[in-house]
Amino acid sequence: MSDAGIRSIIEEVRANVQRQRDALALEIVAELQRKPPQGTPVKTGYARAMWIPVLGQPALTPERARVTGTAAERNATMRNMAVSARARQQAAIASLLADGPGQPEVSAHVYNPAVYVNRLNERGGQSPPGWVEASVARAVIARQAAVRAVQEVL
After folding, report:
1. This model's pTM is above 0.70
2. How far apart are CA 133 and CA 111, in angstroms?
3. Domain coordinates of the chain in residue numbers?
4. What are the distances in angstroms from CA 73 to CA 44, 89, 136, 151?
5. Strand (E) or helix (H) holding 110
6. Distance between CA 42 and CA 62 in Å, rounded?
7. Helix boundaries (H) for the chain
8. For residue 24, with 0-12 CB atoms within 10 Å meaning exposed, 13-18 middle and 19 or more buried, which class applies?
9. Handedness of CA 135, 136, 137, 140 (dihedral sign)
10. For residue range 4-33, what is the model confidence (pLDDT) as tens digits?
């Protein structure tokens, strides 16, 4: 096999690794956004909208918003923040899906900068304690099944 043939195979493998990495990140986001009791508990929709896939190291700084005013004003502010968060999430997903040179050596992360998401995961309520870990596990199992199905066809 020529050097060009070997390089072609290496590039094909790298592209496949990138596709699988990206698909897993998107599956994790989808699982985390499921309705309770499997996914993110929902009051205003803010935490549910904040699951963001990113390549490389995620920003681990929680988003701290000081929301003041009457209960109605606070709820309206949180709803507006959820809409803004959803737009950021959609932009991140679009970026992940964009065509272009891949970076298969870069890891993908899914993070949620909502400051209270860890409490939601630990305490349960609408979703059982540990729902984040369960969501990630379901996404990994689904991605593994998809890969196995393709391998069986080949």
Report:
1. no
2. 13
3. 10-153
4. 13, 24, 34, 54
5. strand 108-111
6. 18
7. 3-32, 46-49, 71-97, 117-123, 131-153
8. buried
9. positive
10. 888 888 888 878 877 888 888 888 889 998
